[in-house]
Amino acid sequence: MSKQFDVVVIGGGPGGYIAAIRAAQLGFSVACVDAWSNDKGGPALGGTCTNVGCIPSKALLQSSEHFEHAGHAFADHGIKVKGLELDVAQMLARKNTIVKQNNDGIVYLFKKNKVTFFHGLASFVQAVDGLYSIKVAGKAEENISGKHIVIATGSNARPLPGAEFDEDLILSNDGALTIAAVPKRLGVIGAGVIGLEMGSVWRRCGAEVTVLEALPTFLGAVDEQIAKEANKLFVKQGLSINLGVKIGDIVKGKKDVTVNYTDDKGAAQKAVFDKLIISIGRTPNTNGLNAEAVGLQLDERGFIAVDADCKTNLTNVWAVGDVVRGPMLAHKAEEEGVAVAERIAGQHGHVNFNTIPWVIYTSPEIAWVGRTEQQLKADGVAYKAGTFPFMANGRARALGDTSGMVKFLADATTDEILGVHIVGPMASELISEAVVAMEFRASAEDIARICHAHPSLSEATKEAALAVDKRSLNF
């Protein structure tokens, strides 16, 4: 007889493990099934985010930023460094330690909240008498059942036809995090979040990085003014960013990869790289789920079809995170996981897509929430804009990082904040004030009237809000 639970969560990434914990807090008996394994074959909870995404990439970004500062910025502070060397093996070992700490942290949280964990690949078997049977294919096959099923199976890196990942020469985000030695020539196809972050890591470590992007504009989803500023700063740092290219044949040799492409002027080009990262997006992961066994509906792009409440076409089956519509962001998955657990309990879980922040963890960081200036123009919305540069911020000067700006967009009539966009130091932290303000439908004047600590980077946020009314005090 199979073990029966009120809620079975399939997937232990940010959406899944958070949904499981919240459901357990609400009094349900909960199981979570996840197939990720570490190098010893044990469970590696946390999904893509913890294992090959958010967490390890930030660890490498931090390490590489320290290395670059030691080599180029410390002298300004009167700190002299002789014989600077990069130990890539130690940098990767530190990253792996941080990943394991997060893996183990989720195991602890499951025990604390009495979530039963099953290590293996979950697949639907059948639906009988209001219960869904789930097979767990692990070291030993198990069968469990649940009244409510929450699918949080995440996404996979999208391969480029003709250049499949081998994680040696042609890399996904996974392979990009495990490069054993700094490549002399690194190619990146796709100027999105992953491409820019990984390109930045290895550029700081000494690689010559060339980014090839098919779109004619840089970071098209970002506010145009912010994107142009970021592009200028990245090129100044040494990233070679090529827009409007058309990728042709990719030829893999024994020790390098040749990429043939057409540039934005239509001229044929060829580049040879020691490593090639392909970051052209991600696809929903329903591999092995056996959705057809219970009639679970997928949309035309392979995502699990859900309504605004994350309900699928099946009674008591829900889906959250990368495997459904909406932005592929870990924190979006977490919010959906909490909301679904609360909806199962009869509560009114809430996720506001309009106030989900976005972050690119380059240096400078890029962060935004709400609509861009080009979106407001396209929608015919009358707005006011205010900007403030970090070069006029005392704390930024003290940090030695004055690149970028904060930009506010507010309704021309009501002054309600419609969007906030930042490129600059600690943008990922500064954006939270804007998220709170927008969630409570604050005006730019509200932020302008709030006392911000001095000296702090957050003063740039206040000053940008003041600039909406053309009364910035320090610029």
TrEMBL record:
Disulfide bonds join C49-C54. Its main location: cytoplasm. GO terms for biological process: 2-oxoglutarate metabolic process. The active site is at H454. This is Dihydrolipoyl dehydrogenase. Coiled coil: none annotated. Binds 1 FAD per subunit. The lineage of its organism: Bacteria, Pseudomonadati, Pseudomonadota, Betaproteobacteria, Burkholderiales. The keyword Oxidoreductase applies. Belongs to the class-I pyridine nucleotide-disulfide oxidoreductase family. One of its GO terms (molecular function) is dihydrolipoyl dehydrogenase (NADH) activity. Its cofactor is FAD. The active site is a redox-active disulfide bond. One of its GO terms (cellular component) is cytoplasm. Its EC number is 1.8.1.4. Keywords: Cytoplasm, FAD, Flavoprotein, NAD, Nucleotide-binding, Oxidoreductase, Redox-active center. Residues 356-465 form the Pyridine nucleotide-disulphide oxidoreductase dimerisation domain. FAD binds at K58, T153, G154, S155, D322, M328, L329, A330, H331. NAD(+) binds at G190, A191, G192, V193, I194, G195, L196, E197, E213, G281. Residues 5-337 form the FAD/NAD(P)-binding domain.
